Every structure is written in C-alpha cells, then in structure tokens.
C-alpha cells in the first residue's frame, strides 16, 4: 500500500455532521446516504465556495467506543477570517502526523475497501498506531466520483 507521511498544523473546519454506528456495517450505508442528502439539500453547494484549500472533507470525529459510533462530518477547511454560515458547525482539528493513502476508483467502494485494508493490513505491518485524532477523507472538487480514475485521499492520524 502506497502512503506518505504528512505533518500538519492545527486547522479549523466548517460543515455538518451526523452520528453513525459502526455496528453491522451501518456506517458503510449511512455515510453514502448522508453525502447524497447533503448534495440534494444544498449543503455541499453552500460549502463549495470555501472548498478551495483541500476540497471537500469527510471527517470521522468523536469516536465512542462504548456506543460503537462516531460523528461523520462533511466539511471544508475554514479559510482564515471567513464568516461561517449559521447552519454550519465549526470544529478545530489538532496538529497531527498523518499517513495519507490514495483510494483510486468509484465511490464509495474504493474508499470503503481502502479503510478496511488500512486497519487490517497496514497498521499491523508498520508499527504505527492510531493517535486518536480525527480521521479524514479528502475529496478534490470537480472529480467524477463514478470514474475508475477518481482519486480520494484518506488521512489517518498516527504515532510510532
């Protein structure tokens, strides 16, 4: 699995979130539905003017190991000094070291498959540990998400 290590300072994001369960693979169904809803209700359109820095982000935050759930947030990096629409939540992502992987292929399959491989193959083989910071998917603006050439990045916070 190809990856690169990236150090990134803390940054703020703005977006909308939904709590999803990890039980019975519910998150694999609910997250694509949440993207579809957000595309239809105008959420992604409202975020688009702010998506210049990294594109759209899919963040996994606030993991609850007891309830087996987390918040999945569709967001963008908040530009410095930007006025945030009241309908969006603002969150701070801490400074972290990230392992960045490329998922190539149509969504959501390419991303879901790579997430599985990261946890079942990459972590056990590398000696890295998850640092506990939020995880994120980076979706460049303008990509054809149904294309075999679609490229999405998965950013996993790590420590040795």
From TrEMBL:
SUPFAM superfamilies given in the database record: Probable bacterial effector-binding domain (SSF55136)
Domain of life assignment: Bacteria
Protein name: GyrI-like domain-containing protein
Database matches in Pfam families: GyrI-like
Phylogenetic classification of the source organism: Bacteria, Bacillati, Bacillota, Bacilli, Bacillales
Positions of the AraC effector-binding domain: 1-159
Coiled-coil portions: none
Record-linked InterPro entries: AraC_E-bd, GyrI-like, Reg_factor_effector_dom_sf, YobU-like_regulator
């Amino acid at each position: 699995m190809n990856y690169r290590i990236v150090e990134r300072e803390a940054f703020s994001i703005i977006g909308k979130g939904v709590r999803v369960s990890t039980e019975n693979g519910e998150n694999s169904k609910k997250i694509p539905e949440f993207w579809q809803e957000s595309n239809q209700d105008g959420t992604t359109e409202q975020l688009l003017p702010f998506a210049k820095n990294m594109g759209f982000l899919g963040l996994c935050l606030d993991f609850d190991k007891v309830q087996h759930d987390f918040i999945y947030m569709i967001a963008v990096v908040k530009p410095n000094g930007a006025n945030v629409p009241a309908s969006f939540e603002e969150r701070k992502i801490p400074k972290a070291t990230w392992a960045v992987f490329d998922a190539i292929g149509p969504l959501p399959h390419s991303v879901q498959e790579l997430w599985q491989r990261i946890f079942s193959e990459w972590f056990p083989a590398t000696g890295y540990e998850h640092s506990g910071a939020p995880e994120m998917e980076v979706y460049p603006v303008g990509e054809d998400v149904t294309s075999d050439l679609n490229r999405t990045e998965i950013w996993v916070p790590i420590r040795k």
